[in-house]
Design brief:
The complex is a heterodimer of chains A (832) and B (186). Chain A is mostly helical. In chain A, strand 3 (98-105) and strand 4 form a beta hairpin. In chain A, 45% of the residues are buried. With 186 residues, chain B is mainly α. Classes of the chains: A mainly alpha (832), B mainly alpha (186).
């Protein structure tokens, strides 16, 4: 034997000293045709590769729990002793961490006996208690017939934390199966109950972390109870807080790989532990170290199912405990299992690798979800009869959403870039799969996911999700509900984003009417929808409707000026902007100035709401002719944008443009030109389409024109026009703008091809759809000038009048354009 | 034999004095147990302990002692590692016995108890496997005893065995692979 061993040892040593790639060749040489020797060496090499962490700590740390447990046998507490509101009756369990007592309420309020787990000294009581208080509400929601409830918890007079649990009399599931000699099918049915209970907890965002036979008890009637749900988390799962022992000799049998390596513990860890439990329930043994189910006891589906649950990589296991339960049920019903092939998990794994969600994005989405839950919870206080139901549902949907979005645990994975879209798409798939049979919850979930899709500009997916949510909600036939109203509002937002204004307004009006019915006119949610509606009107350039809606909101809010809310301030600044759109500059400025001041005080200068108001107030001031002040505000807007977004962001580029525009109007042409060139450079990169390339050229061309650089202007404008003709739709106002400027240029130069440019401008004008926004008006103005120069006075008079009609709505009486157009008309009329 | 000074005991044990070895063993053993007890009796919360610290305290004092020759030191390291193995195995055995017979309640709610059960089993399994390894190679078995049970560094182990550190490193890898496989198959 020792001689044999020395050959093996020598070969093993040689192999260990050889790079892995060359070991095969080395063993060929050493072992020759001694297959047994080779087998030995290879199996030892495999063990070597797998043995990382084995014997890594010293025996003293490793065995410390043994020593401590051995010394901790005598109980310090006595029956009859009071702990919190409970009287201890007798010890029913004991262990290194403390005793479990049978106990009853000391104040006689309840007859029921409970199990009280008294944690012994040495653990950080305050930290445990704080965790318990944080967790208790979630724990309290874990009502499930197969989950032993955590009833209470606190700290005893002498500073030891304790937990009070439902009393369960039964034995470990493995012992139960053995004692009753259950058939394989009976065992599987029992296991399904366990997996379903775990699935229920996961939907409530509680992870067990410590599923093992001694925590899964079965009573005499065969009822299953899971113990200690969430306790592992309460006690902290990093090693052992009492002894500071963290090292592990080798895989504790029930820990998942990520628990062993200190990785992120998620629902996937429970799925793994369920896999271990399943294996043990079926075979009476634990599977060997990770993945290596060496004793071939399970065959076919059950082997596949177990292996799937025991995958090393969390994202290749069953996506949920319910999926695991379902596959076992399918197996029992002789249906093909759903997770048989590897394709799904590969896809999922690939997906996760490809599309990491940045941590901040997830947090943003979760914050959104939580905000929504909080809102829903307030809302329902008004709906007396359905309150309970609604609150439960809102919380459940919020938690579901969080779990769907959390499932991939982005912070556990890595730092790569994200596709929020993919993540959301997958959440929707999971919702559809996991919420079958619960239409109300499914619809609410799809609706929120639809809205998220709108946020990330996945219009098609958003539309499908919202349509599905609507059709379910309408089928439920519950009449107008807050859920239905919310989905309609979300559809309105989507239509708004995709510029289908009429449909947006229709959906939002429907939603608004329902909210008014359900919650009243002054409810914050009603007002939020009303604001959304007003913003559609603003984008659609129908400021009149927007003004009416926004004024109504302000009246409903009835806020004192001394104590404004962020919402009220945003409404004020939007009202200001709508008034500005109506060319009511004085009222616009009068409302926006104090709003801006409050926003600065409330949020500081570096805030998105502040920025928006700065910009809008700047525009109103500019168009009223207060160019100096407008310039200051635009400079501020540019500074804020750079600070918030950086130099190359679309917001910053936009701020650059507006500042340049104001400077151009003020005649500060040199700086205007410099900024316009910067805009052109950055804009071509920042904007998603090419519009900046012709828009910027049109603008820069205009400045060059004003500077008297006609050659430069013409080159710029013709280049812009060529780009616009290639890229912009035929009736795009930008094209008209370029034509107008070229026409104006020709006009100024008396150019040879002036006639052709006029023609083009005129043709464009003729083809112009009737409801294009008014800002093409200066084209009509230029056209009139061209016609005047050509001597077509009748046409010129008509176009001057058209231009003036538009200017009167848009510009103050002393605006230079308006003055010029009026002068032009006068000249034409006075001409002989 | 009434000597209780560890240095003296050590000197005696090196001459093959069985009683001295036993005395040294009970010294280490006693320290370990006292320490464990102290932990459990009314110590202020938050005071954690490492059994390592105490045991090392008692024999590190010795190891650093001027009175020890290099040879003594190597001998002591080996002896203390062996003593530690015996101490821990005896605890594990007692633990195991309590678990099986001694009126323990089957309703185990406690993760630490489960952990200690688990570790007790593993300590016993390792001890047995190490016994089998010793039959194949005494040196590999002693390497594990010194490094794992003795908590010695690679260099200290090399010193205690009188071999080069690179040899210890290789022996350690071989022994671990063999034990790992052995314990998996058990």
């Amino acid at each position: 034997m020792p001689e044999r061993w020395s050959r093996i040892e020598a070969a093993l040593e040689a192999a260990l000293l050889t790079p892995e790639a060359e070991r095969g060749a080395l063993l060929d040489r050493i072992c020759g045709d001694d297959a047994e020797l080779r087998g030995e060496v290879e199996s030892l090499l495999a063990a070597h590769a797998a043995s990382e962490g084995f014997l890594a700590t010293s025996a003293e740390s490793f065995a410390a729990p043994v020593v401590i447990a051995a010394a901790a046998r005598e109980p310090a507490d006595r029956p009859g002793q009071i702990v919190g509101r409970y009287r201890l009756l007798e010890v029913i369990g004991r262990g290194g961490m403390g005793m479990v007592w049978l106990a009853e309420r000391a104040d006689g309020q309840f007859e029921q006996k409970v199990a009280l787990k008294l944690i012994k000294r040495g653990m950080d009581s305050e930290e445990i208690l704080a965790r318990f208080l944080r967790e208790r509400q979630i724990q309290a929601r874990l009502e499930h017939p197969s989950i032993a409830r955590l009833l209470d918890g606190g700290v005893s007079d002498d500073g030891r934390p304790y937990f009070v649990m439902e009393l369960v009399v039964g034995r470990a599931i493995t012992e139960f199966c053995a004692a009753r000699r259950l058939s394989r099918e009976e065992r599987l049915r029992l296991f399904v109950v366990v997996a379903r209970a775990v699935g229920h907890a996961h939907r409530n965002l509680v992870v067990h972390r410590d599923i093992k036979p001694s925590n899964v008890l079965v009573d005499e009637q065969g009822e299953v109870k899971l113990l200690d749900f969430g306790i592992a988390k309460l006690l902290g799962d990093e090693g052992d807080a009492m002894t500071g022992v963290t090292g592990r000799l080798m895989t504790p049998e029930y820990a998942s790989p990520e628990q062993r390596t200190g990785g992120q513990v998620t629902t996937a860890s429970d799925v793994y532990q369920l896999g271990v439990l399943l294996y043990e329930v079926l075979t009476g043994h634990r599977p060997h170290a990770s993945g290596a189910i060496s004793q071939e006891r399970l065959k076919g589906d059950l082997d596949t199912i177990t292996r799937r649950a025991l995958r090393e990589e969390p994202d290749r296991r069953y996506p949920s405990a319910d999926d695991l339960a379902e596959d076992i049920e399918r197996h029992l019903a002789h249906l093909p299992i759903r997770f048989g092939g590897d394709r799904f998990s590969y896809r999922a794994a690939k997906f996760v690798r490809r599309h990491r969600l940045g941590v901040s994005t997830t947090i943003g989405l979760l914050a959104l979800t939580i905000g929504l839950v909080a809102f829903d919870a307030t809302r329902v206080r008004r709906e007396r009869d359905r309150a309970r139901h609604e609150a439960d549902k809102a919380i459940e949907v919020g938690q579901l959403m969080a779990s769907f979005l959390q499932g991939w645990s982005p912070d556990a994975s890595d730092r790569g870039e994200v596709s929020t879209r993919k993540l959301l798409g997958d959440a929707a798939l999971r919702a559809r799969r996991e919420l079958v049979g619960r239409p109300e919850i499914l619809a609410a979930t799809l609706s929120i996911l639809g809205d998220f899709h709108t946020t990330v500009a996945e219009w098609q997916a958003a539309d499908t999700l919202l349509a599905d949510a609507l059709s379910i909600q309408q089928r439920l036939d519950a009449g107008p509900t807050a859920d239905l109203a919310a989905t309609l509002a979300r559809r309105g937002r989507l239509r708004h984003k995709t510029s289908r204004f009429e449909e947006a307004i229709a959906a939002l009006n429907q939603s608004l009417a329902m909210y008014r019915d359900l919650l009243g006119r002054r409810h914050p949610e009603t007002l939020r929808i009303q604001r959304e509606l007003s913003s559609v009107y603003r984008t659609w350039k129908r400021p009149g409707e927007a003004v009416a809606l926004l004024e109504d909101i302000l009246a409903s809010l009835d806020e004192s000026a001394a104590d404004p809310t962020p919402f009220g301030l945003e409404v004020q600044s939007e009202l200001g902007y709508a008034l500005y759109q109506q060319a009511k500059y004085d009222s616009a400025i009068a409302i926006m100035r104090p709003a801006l001041e409050s926003q600065r005080a409330l949020f500081g200068p570096l805030h998105l709401s502040t920025l928006t108001t700065v910009r809008m107030l700047g525009s109103a001031l500019r168009d009223r002719g207060d160019l100096e002040e407008a310039e200051q505000l635009y400079r501020e807007a540019l500074r804020i944008s750079i600070a918030l977004y950086g130099r190359e962001h679309i917001e910053t580029v936009g701020a650059l443009f507006t500042l340049s525009l104001a400077l151009a109007r003020m005649g500060k042409l040199e700086e205007a030109e410099r900024l316009a060139r910067e805009f052109l450079l950055l804009g071509e990169r920042a904007y998603p389409d090419e519009s900046a390339s012709w828009y910027g050229r049109g603008f820069l061309g205009g400045i060059l024109l004003d500077r008297g650089d006609f050659a430069g202007a013409e080159e710029m404008l013709r280049r812009g026009l060529a780009l616009a003709q290639r890229g912009a739709p035929a009736n795009d106002p930008d094209r008209a703008d370029l034509l107008n400027r070229l026409a104006y240029l020709a006009l100024r130069r008396g150019a040879q091809d002036a006639e052709r440019v006029y023609r083009e401008a005129v043709d464009f004008d003729a083809a112009r759809p009737p409801n294009l926004p008014d800002f093409v008006s200066d084209g009509v103005h230029f056209l009139a000038m061209a016609e005047q120069q050509r001597g077509d006075l009748a046409a010129a008079a008509e176009d001057y009048r058209r231009a003036l009609t538009i200017y009167q709505k848009q510009l103050p009486a002393d605006h230079p354009y308006r003055v010029a157009a009026a002068r032009g008309l006068e000249e034409v009329l006075r001409a002989p | 034999m009434g000597a209780t000074d560890p240095t003296e005991l050590l000197a005696l044990s090196r001459t093959g004095n069985r009683e001295a070895l036993d005395a040294l063993f009970s010294l280490v053993y006693g320290d370990l147990r006292a320490r464990a007890h102290r932990l459990l009796q009314g110590q202020p919360a938050g005071l954690t302990l490492s059994t390592t610290a105490l045991v090392h305290e008692s024999y590190l004092k010795l190891i650093r002692s001027e009175r020890l020759s290099v040879q003594d030191r190597a001998h002591f390291l080996a002896l203390a590692a062996h003593a530690m193995r015996l101490v821990l195995v005896s605890y594990a055995r007692r633990h195991d016995a309590t678990k099986r017979g001694g009126g323990a309640i089957p309703l185990e709610l406690d993760e630490e108890l489960l952990l200690s059960n688990d570790r007790a089993e593993q300590v016993l399994a390792l001890d047995e496997a190490l016994g089998r390894l010793a039959k194949l190679s005494e040196r590999l078995s002693r390497t594990v005893e010194l490094r794992f049970f003795g908590g010695l560094t690679l260099e200290e182990t090399a010193e205690a065995l009188g071999v080069a550190p690179s040899t210890v490193k290789l022996d350690w890898q071989k022994a671990r692979a063999w034990l790992y496989r052995e314990m998996l198959d058990a």
